[in-house]
Amino acid sequence: MTLSPxxxxxxxxxxxxxxxASIADVAALAQExxxxxxxxxxxxPSMLPLPFAPTVKVATVVGFPSGKHTTAIKAAEAAExxxxxxxxxxxxxxxxxxxxxxxxxxxxxxxxxxAAVPSPTVLKVIIEAAALTDDEIVAACRASEAAGADxxxxxxxxxxxxxxxxxxxxxxxxxxxxxxxxxxxxxxRDWDAAQAMVDAGASxxxxxxxxxxxxxxxxxxY
Length: 222
Fold this sequence. Notes:
One of its GO terms (biological process) is carbohydrate catabolic process. Catalyzes a reversible aldol reaction between acetaldehyde and D-glyceraldehyde 3-phosphate to generate 2-deoxy-D-ribose 5-phosphate. Pfam families: DeoC. The structure is a single chain. Helices cover 41% and strands 17% of the residues. It has an eight-stranded parallel beta barrel, surrounded by six helices. Strand 6, helix 7 and strand 7 (181-185) form a beta-alpha-beta unit. Helix 6 crosses helix 7 (166-176). The protein is built from nine helices and eight strands. The two termini are 24 Å apart. It is of the alpha/beta class. It has a single domain (5-214), classed as TIM Barrel (Alpha-Beta Barrel), CATH 3.20.20. The chain is globular.
């Protein structure tokens, strides 16, 4: 499915997760998101509550970027973020636990965050697909669905193994079908890459260089 720039923008979480980001940077991000017509902005939880009223949805991250936070901390971080205005939460699972075969733990930690931020808050689960085998990707997706997540998401964009791939997106979509959304993020820096992710099954994109991507160029961002 070939999308127009406006249609693609409506799938984008316009993202700023740099440790050096200031509230002025977030305000500029929100202003740019409104101008571009993106679905949301995605910012660090320390930026919330925002001192202005954005015209797009607000997403934030939990257990980011390592996933090596306790389940209780992830749940509390998510609850505080929603209390402070987040519409959507992107949580990072404990990748090591999953790779060790403890899928029950993965499902339990997602369930705990889901309980802390029930619907209508949108819960996305970051599985760091580039660090997983195909079987582990499938297991992570199944655990996410069983725990009540709304989306599975490829990557934080910070892991040395890499970001999104069309292979991972297609496998995630095949696993969750139409029951969950699939978010591709990390390393999507030009129009062709963004379109390829949508073609593979992504229903949301995490981009930082959104303006450049929508203009058909190549960005150096998230």
